[in-house]
Amino acid sequence: MNITIQPVKTKSELRKFIYLPAKIHKDHETWLPPIYMDEWAFFNPEKNKSFSYSDTILYLAYKNKEVVGRIMGIINNRYNAIHNEKFGRFIFMECYDDQEVAHALITAVEDWAREKGMIKMVGPLGFSDKDPQGFQISGFEYQTSVVMVANFEYMVRLIEKEGYTKKIDLHDYLISVPEELPKLYKRVYDRISNKTDFQYEMIEFATKKELKKYIVPALQLMNEIYAPIYGFVPLTEKEMHDLAGRYIPILDPHFVKVIQVGEKVVAFVVGMPDISAGIKKSKGHLFPFGLIHIMRSMKRSKGIVLLLGGIKPEYRNNGVDVLLGIKMLESAAKRGIETIESHLVMEINKPMIGEVEKVDGKLIKKFRIFQKDL
Questions:
Q1: Rounded distance, CA 151 to CA 2, Å?
Q2: Which among 332, 342, 341, 364 is positioned nearest to 179, based on CA atoms?
Q3: Does 370 map to a domain?
Q4: Residues 82, 108: one domain?
Q5: DSSP for residue 234
Q6: Is residue 163, in this structure, part of any structural domain at all?
Q7: Which of 28-32, 150-154, 193-197, 316-320 has the lowest mean pLDDT?
């Protein structure tokens, strides 16, 4: 079979790139389509400022003139400069179970990165850890939730045959909302609450409007505490507002918690209702009726997905984590929420894993970022 790899140059080719996964995954029961309006914005350099500090390439694979695969290459110059690296990245790799196509796709991106002076490829990894990352390596029986990837098991075999090995694994946990708070949480909460010099102020929200003044302070804190996380790139203030604009429409303010000391935000957690059922029913299209399906699933959802969270280092290990956990569990119980999904936790993030284990979190999925020397 004749396989050709071509860079995406036209809007028509970009459309093929964006919609190819729907064809590949048409019989994939646990796959979740993207929200296509977000996809078009993501691949638009005028709307996605990450393009301004990155070199990128999009490739399509053709076999007998039919599109059978895609891949994106990224060189995040800002991240490489901060970490003194010469790494290229691949992301959005999709193809059928065909080693020749996988080889052609990954080779094209490797050659592109090598020509630009890169010495290693890592991926799947986007502009930052806020983009989809990793190939799923376990837990294929579970439904994909929003902001996570879903690939067929064969993708792991295909990439490993191209010489890629493990860089790091990411874990996804499922926590059942208990009828009563764990005893450990109760003890810590009572101890903190009885302190005469209690200095923490828990901020909870009833409306999205109330969230706005805390967006930049919370994301500035995220910039500080996420710096050591693999793949993370600090956000500019413009990017903070762009990120907020993307997610605020689908956030429930009751599942956002902020702790401050004086006027300073020292901890926060952001969760959102699992809207995967609505996205699936809408097939990724907001109009004409997709938005109705998504909003309806938001109200009916029995699950929460955690998106972001963190605690300023000097305030860790003194009960702040418990305060956040208790308030999130209380809000979940009031709404009839049955489960909380942790989103992706790096296998080396022992403090976070410890918090999840305190509430009997169950490891349900693993995702892997791969690497290869060029």
A1: 25
A2: 332
A3: no
A4: yes
A5: P
A6: yes
A7: 193-197
Considering the domain architecture, whether residues 153 and 194 belong to the same structural domain is answered as: no
Of all helices (H) and strands (E), which one includes residue 311? strand 303-311
Residue 353 lies inside a defined structural domain of this protein? no
Question: Is there a contact between 159 and 102 (Cβ–Cβ < 8 Å)?
Answer: yes
Question: Cα dist. 313→8, 224, 321 in Å?
Answer: 44, 9, 11
- Whole-angstrom CA distances from 236 to 55, 74, 78, 219, 281 are 18, 19, 12, 9, 35
135: domain CATH number? 3.40.630.30
Q: Residue 91 corresponds to which tokens in the numbers above?
A: 């992301």
99 and 45 fall within a common domain? yes
Instruction: Look up the pTM and report it.
Output: 0.91
| Calpha distance 328→340 (Å, rounded) | 9
One domain for residues 259 and 193: yes
Asked if residue 201 and residue 163 are part of one domain, the reply reads no
pLDDT at position 198 over 70? no
pLDDT tens for each residue of 95-143: 999 999 999 999 999 999 999 999 999 999 999 888 889 999 999 999 8
| Peptide bond connecting 124 to the previous residue in cis, omega within 30 degrees of 0 | yes
Looking up tokens 């860790």 gives 316
321 is a domain residue: yes
- Per the CB < 8 A criterion, the answer to whether 118 and 374 are in contact is yes
Burial class, 269, CB count within 10 angstroms (exposed 0-12 / middle 13-18 / buried 19+) = buried
pLDDT, mean of residues 12-19: 98
pLDDT in tens, 79-101: 999 999 999 999 999 999 999 99
Residue 145: which domain range?
Answer: 3-171
Contacts of 290 (CB under 8 A, 6+ apart): 278, 281, 282, 283, 284
Across the chain, mean pLDDT equals 90
Q: What is the mean pLDDT of residues 158-168?
A: 97
